[in-house]
Structures are given as C-alpha cells and as structure tokens.
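FORM 7B: Structural annotation worksheet

SECTION A. Query
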Amino acid sequence: MKKGNSESKEGSQASSINQQGRLGDAEFVANLSHELRTPLNAIVGFSQLLNQQLSHLPDQQESVQMIEQAGRHLWELIDQLIDLVKIEGGVSSITMESIDVYQLLKDCIALITIVAKEKKIEIFFTPYSEPIYAKADHLRLRQVILNLLSNAVKYNVEGGEVHVAASMLEGNITISIVDSGIGIEKSQQEKVFQPFQRLGAQFSDIEGTGLGLSICKELIELMQGEIGFTSQEFEGSRFFLKLRPADIEVRDKGKIKRIQTPVPSNNPLIKVNLKLLYIEDNPTNIRFMRLLLQQFTGLELIVANTGKEGLAQARQFRPDIIFLDMRLPDMHGLEVLEKLAEDASHSAKVYAVTADALPGQIEVAMHAGIDGYFTKPIDIKRLQKLLVA
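SECTION B. Predicted structure
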C-alpha cells in the first residue's frame, strides 16, 4: 500500500516538474520574441521613415528600401523561429475540433489568389462530392495550407497553374496541392522538411526562410496527420496532407475558434488636433515615435518613461490617445491599463505599442479592455491611419 502511495507521489511530482518546465519554456519564448522584436522596431521603423523622406534621392531611397526589405525578412524569420521553438518545446497548444475542409480551402485560396494573379497563375479547386470534416486545429491547419499554397505560387512559373483537391481515401481525408512550377531536384528531396533548407532557392530572387515546411511537418504531426510530397524537376510538385476525419456525431457541433490579431482601425472620433501620451522607456523607440508624429502639426506628444509617470501625466494632461508599452521598468502595461480604468475622468483611447506579439499576449490584452494593439516592428501606415480624422 505504501509503495502505491509512493509511486503516486512520484508521478505527481514528475507531472508538476513537467508542467513547471512547460511554463518556463512559454516564458522563454515570450521573452525571446520580445527581445528580438525590439531592435527590429528601430531597423524597420526608421527605414520606413527614411523611405518617405528620400523620394528626391532615388539611389539613397533604393538603399533604404533594401534595408527595410532585409529587416522584414529577419522579422519573418524570427516569427517562424519562435513558432518552431514553441512547437518543439511543447509550448504551442493544439485544439482539435471539427473543421469544414471545403470552407477552409476556399478561404485560403481566396487569400492567395491576389498574389497568384500577379504572376498570372490560375488556381483550380476540385472539392469532394460530399461535405468532409477533418479533426484538426483550425488555426494551425489554415497556417499549413496557406504555406503550401504560397509555395505553389512562389515556386511556380509565370502563367502556371495550381490545382487544389480534397478527397476521402482509405478512411483519411487527403488534401493535395499540385503546381506546374520548377520542381525539386531529386538530390535535394530528402532535405525538404529540414529547417533552413531552401533547396537551391537561396541563389535566386525568390524570398523565403527555409523554415515553412519544417513547421508544417511539426504541426501536422501534432494533429496526428501526415504530410508528404512528390516532385519532378522542371515539371512541378504535389504536396499532400492526410488528416483524420471528424467523428460523425460532432460534425454539426464543430466550432471554429478563430483568434485574430486586432488591427487598430480609423476612429472617426479621433481628430488631428489631439494630445497623445506615449508611455515607453526605450529611448530609440521614443525617438522613432517623435519623428513619425512630426507630420501631425496639431498633435501634442507627451512622453512618460515609467508606468507611474504615465499615470501622473494622464491625470495632468488628459490625453485623447495613449500609446502604451507592455513591459515598463516599474509595472506591466496591463496594470497601467487597470489603474487608468479606475480613474473616473479617464476617457482616452489606449493602444498597446509593444514587442509582445504572441497571440496569447494579444488576447489577454484585448480581454483586459485595450482599444487596439500594435506589435513591433510597427507598420507606420497602420499607425498613421489611426491618427488621420
């Protein structure tokens, strides 16, 4: 009897240690994402500003555009690296649910069609004769399909074709994406799902990180599915997914939970003549914001370097808008938001401007009552739209 209790206790301790490890991994990923995005905000942000100011100097403007392009490439690489770390560390959560495959494919194709038209590529979709429902994580399956469709267009030839089909084969749902592109050299095919393998494309003008397919493989396997491909050089490739069908009794109950990154939109109540309080402790970010807001002649910018100072400035100046960093030296941004809400005279719109860019962090802030969320590196066109009446 004592032995059984001992085993149970050891099992409980092991489970607790494992849980602590997962929480530590999640914190590591969040901190890593934040620290990498913060310097990128300066690289991409100042590049965007200089690009606008150098229209009379085309050579210099082209150089700045190259800096911005490289910064955005690094941004994409960081996002995908963070994704890979989350998956391999067991931090990435998977929610299995019933998914309408036809609707998901239709939505994904609609998103890729604009890019395909630029290369005069036609996308053909052959749905299954009956509705089919897969058991998978909606957000992650969408990510995988968009990646495969994007590759089918990116590595295709101008005027080429992409064929998308869904079917039921041997009790599994099969999604296939076939392109008429450049194909994959036979000697390179065993490296397709390895990280940082661009399979010769690094010597071309086709952009990419070499991480997309390795992430796809990890995600599909987490959803207990399978991913594979066949390819003939200079003729094209066929990538396919095999997924488990959803149980018949839950098909009609399947709820698709979509987490969208909130994008602040134009607010008709906000006028150009306004007071804007920026609560931020990083001097580089403050300089970037000052330069960005110079174009708004009627705008008064007030800066606070700590949460406590920001609350005092909010009470003194009564700003119309507050831009709030989430990681301040004395308190978290959500604590500042909570204290602002306790002030009955507070009426400012509060927008997060932060390098905390993970979906979970954004969702928590939105539930806490933040009015909008800008992630760093900041897209200045989106921020400018917010300030234009």
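SECTION C. Observations
The domain at 97-253 is CATH 3.30.565.10 (Heat Shock Protein 90). The CA atoms of residues 272 and 296 lie 7 Å apart.

SECTION D. Sign-off
Analyst initials: ____
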